[in-house]
Write a structure and sequence with these properties.
single chain; about 425 residues; two-stranded antiparallel ribbon
């Protein structure tokens, strides 16, 4: 059993940082192990950015509340050895996990934030994310949550050591090695009918519990799965939620409310390097069910992130849309009805930004616009044409050329010839 709150409160007197607190707490007796000391130090720093100036009784009461939230830090010795389902890195307890991620004592809990301390702390350097509201093309609010460099590196390690070993469904084309928007578009090119649907708040619908469930399925003990999930998800502070931009149209207020509700709970952050692949893994069952539905009606199915695409000769479009909506809800997602499109062959069929009536290609209008931009850059210089102030305008143009030239080598050659004439 850990020292009582009065003893911990006395140890709080001194330099207020993680290392100093850990050293002073380690001098106390009664700890069950170094993980408990590290957890307590991280909890105190997470609760107060500076040494608290509270009355002794109030400080003791708040420390007691923090200690009551302390999770079980060690796997019980009577728990059987894990059974690994995929070739993930086998961390069987929290000590092994911290060592595998090259973390010091207490740092694992600091980054995983199991008690949700950072959602209560004021915005500042203690927070692991930098958050910024933007607006989508349709006018819906969108929150970008970018992890700080240290957490981002931890997430990349988890991606390499864990997530990369778990298979995704064959229908997934986004954020999968060897697949792209072009591979999805090519799979649906030249078909009589294309049905396109969109999932609402894709990353926000993937909860922390679902991520932990995936990791438990992989074989990790519950405590390890919870810590790993804590590194991959976040809870948006209320102060940030209050700053959300208003909905543009009256019909947008309800989706906005649903988004804020999702962000207020543990969710995948849009901006973390591991969020796309984690979302892919958590949609495996959805992909499997929708692929089975497509097969039953003689159609093809594919998904790029939150875009669902069906194509075939004689699709029962309305019935298909109703079934997809129901299946998505059963799997914890929601279809955006306002973005559902039924595209017969006599209309322009667009999949992931590519026209697929015959073979995948960008619209002629986009090609013409880029060709005109490159011509103007050659005539007046690139600086005069960089109207959006891209910090790497040269690379931006090369990326657009690669995109517009996808599947059209003659187009790409003409665009590259224009690019070569630009006086950089």
């Amino acid at each position: 059993m850990a020292p009582d709150p009065h003893t911990v409160a006395r140890a709080a007197d001194g330099p207020w940082n993680l290392d100093a607190l850990t050293t002073r707490l380690a001098e106390l007796s009664g700890w069950r192990g170094p993980e408990e000391i590290g957890w307590t130090a991280a909890a105190l720093v997470g609760r107060w950015r500076r040494r608290p100036r509270l009355a002794p009784e109030r400080l003791v009461a708040e420390i007691a509340e923090l200690l009551a939230e302390r999770p079980g830090l060690r796997v019980r010795p009577d728990v059987p050895e894990p059974r690994w389902r995929w070739p993930v890195t086998p961390w069987s307890d929290l000590d092994a996990l911290a060592l595998g991620l090259d973390l010091r004592v207490g740092e694992l809990d600091w980054f995983a934030d199991p008690g949700g301390w950072l959602t209560r702390a004021p915005e500042g350097p203690l927070h692991h994310y930098r958050r910024r509201w933007t607006t989508s093309c349709a006018g819906a609010p969108r929150l970008l949550e970018s992890p700080a460099p240290r957490l981002q590196e931890l997430q990349r390690r988890v991606g390499r050591k864990v997530l990369a070993a778990i298979p995704v469904h064959d229908a997934a084309h986004g954020y999968v090695r060897g697949r792209s928007p072009h591979t999805l578009a090519a799979a649906h090119a030249g078909t009589p009918l294309v049905v396109r649907l969109d999932l609402e708040g894709f990353f926000a619908h993937v909860t922390g519990e679902r991520v932990a469930g995936l990791l438990r399925t992989a074989g990790y003990p519950a405590a390890v799965a919870a810590a790993l999930a804590g590194l991959l998800v976040t809870t948006t502070p209320r102060a940030v939620l209050r700053g959300a931009p208003p909905a543009v149209a009256p019909t947008g207020w309800e989706p906005r409310r649903r988004l804020l509700d999702r962000l207020a709970a543990p969710h995948l952050p849009q901006g973390a390097p591991t969020s796309p692949v984690t979302a892919n893994l958590l949609t495996h069952r959805l992909d499997r069910r929708l692929a089975g539905l497509a097969s039953a009606v003689g159609a093809s199915y594919g998904r790029y992130a939150d875009d669902l695409v069906f194509s075939g000769a004689t699709l029962p479009a309305l019935g298909l849309i109703a079934l997809v909506t129901t299946i998505a809800e059963e799997e914890g997602f929601r279809v955006r009805r306002d973005k559902t499109r039924v595209l017969p062959a006599h209309r322009r069929q667009v999949v992931t930004g590519l026209v697929v009536n015959t073979r995948p290609a960008v619209a002629r209008r986009e090609y013409d616009a880029l060709r005109a931009l490159l011509h103007n850059c050659a005539q007046t210089g690139p600086a005069a044409q960089n109207h959006d102030a891209h910090p790497a305008f040269r690379e931006h143009l090369l990326g657009r050329i690669a995109w517009v030239g996808t599947g059209r080598p003659a187009r790409e050659a003409r665009l590259r010839a224009l690019f070569a004439a630009i006086p950089w």
